[in-house]
Amino acid sequence: MQQTRKTELWVGSFVLAGICAILVMIFQVADVKSIGSGDTYTLKAEFDNIGSLKVR
């Protein structure tokens, strides 16, 4: 029983480390400097014909 618990802890640790590594790689590929802060911009567009779209 003790050996099973130890094995489960090791597997859980490796899975957690793997998830953290994947998240770090995703943020590096996306070139994210910090989450939730930084420069933002407003985008405005005007269309002559929007078809059947309606304002919500």
Strand content: under 5%
Number of DSSP E strands? 0
Number of helices: 1
Question: Mean pLDDT score, rounded?
Answer: 86
Task: Describe the protein in words.
With 56 residues, the chain is mainly α. The protein has one domain (1-49). It is 50% helix and 0% strand. It contains one helix and no strands. The protein has one helix at 2-29. The longest helix is centred in the first third of the chain and has 28 residues, at 2-29. It starts with a helix and ends in a 27-residue tail after the last helix.
Please describe the topology of this protein.
Blueprint lengths: L1 H28 L27
Keywords: Membrane, Transmembrane, Transmembrane helix
Protein name: Outer membrane lipid asymmetry maintenance protein MlaD
Organism: Vibrio parahaemolyticus
List keywords for this structure.
mainly alpha, elongated, 1 helix
Short account of what is shown:
With 56 residues, the chain is mainly alpha-helical. It contains one helix and no strands.
